Amino acid sequence: MLKQAWACLAGWIAFGLLVEAMSGYRIPALLDDPIRREMLRLAHAHGTLLNLVLLAAAICARLELVRIESGVAILLRIAIISIPVGFLLAGVWHFKNDPGIGILLVPVGGVLLLWSCIQLALSTRN
Question: Residue 119's pLDDT is what?
């Protein structure tokens, strides 16, 4: 989990720098398409913040503050990948005024994230 958290955190930060550079250099593919711009920003924000959550979970597991079952860890890792990737895909390929089909990954990841957080809360050591 630590490797995934640090590697993906670096990737989403780099992606955010790319989106900001595209905005700064006035790239029409980003600026002329408000849906693409919003979805790519959401992908960057969720990817960065959710990987910080994964990093915190991994540190808590290492310090034995929580007991993370392997199934919960897998669901958490899938959720943290699927939410930002869903936003990314929804922005890259989208319909005229709606996000693309990739947006369907976001609620699935949200449910998995919620379930994982509940399981982690229940496994917290007092």
Answer: 93
* 8-state DSSP, 102: G
Contact 125, 67 (CB under 8 A): yes
How many CB atoms are closer than 10 A to CB 47? 24
The per-residue pLDDT of the chain, averaged, comes to 92
Measured between alpha carbons, how far is residue 81 from residues 24, 61, 89, 119 in Å?
27, 19, 12, 18
pTM (2 decimals)? 0.89
CB 59 within 8 A of CB 13: no
Q: Are 67 and 101 in contact (CB under 8 A)?
A: no
pLDDT for residue 126: 63
The span from the first CA to the last CA of the chain, in angstroms, equals 23
Helix (H, G, I), strand (E, B) or coil at 66: strand
Q: What separation in angstroms does the CA of 96 have from each of 21, 64, 89?
A: 24, 49, 15
How far is Cα 21 from Cα 43, in angstroms, rounded to an integer? 16
Query: Average pLDDT of 82-98?
Result: 90
* CA angle, 14 then 2 then 75, to 5°: 95
Q: Is the pLDDT of residue 125 over 80?
A: no
